[in-house]
Amino acid sequence: MSRLIFTALFCSVSFLSWGWGATGHRATGYIANKYLNKKARKAIERILNGQSLAMASTWMDEIRSDSTYDYTADWHWVTIPDGMTYEQAEKNPKGDIIESIERIVAELKSKKLSPQQETERLKWLIHLIGDIHQPLHVGRGDDRGGNNIKIMWFRADSNLHRVWDSDMIDDTKLSYTELAESLGNPTQQQVQNWQQATVRDWAYESMSYRQQVYDYGNARLGYQYAYKYLGTAKERLLQAGIRLAGVLNEIYG
């Protein structure tokens, strides 16, 4: 079966596989806000009409029920098979998360957008930078980003994608602000290193976690899996927030 067929199959379930849950996305927005420079913060407050990065971060999932935005459905993910680079992988003609982030950043930098276009693109960018840091949004091409792998999360039916999107995070019972504050404070050197990485670097980092992600044994997951890998999910959320701030500072600072 060709990868383009897998693309269509992935798209058919994308409405069930939202990158990070609301708590995770809002945590990245909350973190990013702390690392904005003054000029970028002022511009973003104007563009979002006072809405916080945290609350704007989930808009791209919320519009999935609006057919007007169906063309954005495939932007949340990308397929890069094991052993391949993005450049070598077959491209989705409807777009993917790497292409979308790179394009949206260029459009925002162009300063040629209408106010509505700028607001939409900013909200897309906030969301997609979160998504690309969820390891299963850079898929292998054989299991629809983990959606096909059925899992028991404690006593509830789930799938591997959902475990990483929300199950592990939601089971912490933390609000998005509490989750964000629990992620710690990176050193200045860490912030600098994380912000110097490119969009494609972020995707390859997500690929590098596949051995951890797919360590699901008998598919009955719970405390042990969360103990081993929740830290990875938290680090990815922190990196997403720091990098989101870096991109926004570059665009608006």
Q: Quick summary of this structure?
A:
By secondary structure, this protein is mainly alpha-helical. 57% of the residues lie in helices and 6% in strands. It contains 13 helices and five strands.
Largest pleated sheet: 3 strands, mixed
Number of strands: 5
Tally the helices: what do you get? 13
Q: CATH first level: which class?
A: Mainly Alpha
Note the gap between the termini. 46 Å
The helical percent reads: 55-70%
Note the overall shape: globular
Spans where pLDDT lies below 50 across 5 or more residues: 1-16
What's the mean pLDDT score? Answer: 93
CATH H-tier superfamily: P1 Nuclease
The helix/strand series, from N terminus to C terminus, equals HHHHHEHHEEEHHHHHEH
Structural class: mainly alpha
User: Going across the major beta sheet, what is the strand order?
Assistant: 4-3-5
CATH topology: P1 Nuclease
Percentage of residues in DSSP E strands: 5-15%
Provide the domain count.
1
Radius of gyration: 17 Å
Q: What is the CATH architecture descriptor? A: Orthogonal Bundle
Account of the protein in words:
With 253 residues, the protein is mainly α. It has one domain: P1 Nuclease (Orthogonal Bundle), CATH 1.10.575. 57% of the residues lie in helices and 6% in strands. The chain has 13 helices and 5 strands. The chain has a 3-stranded mixed sheet with strand order 4-3-5. The longest helix has 30 residues. The protein is globular. The N terminus is likely disordered.
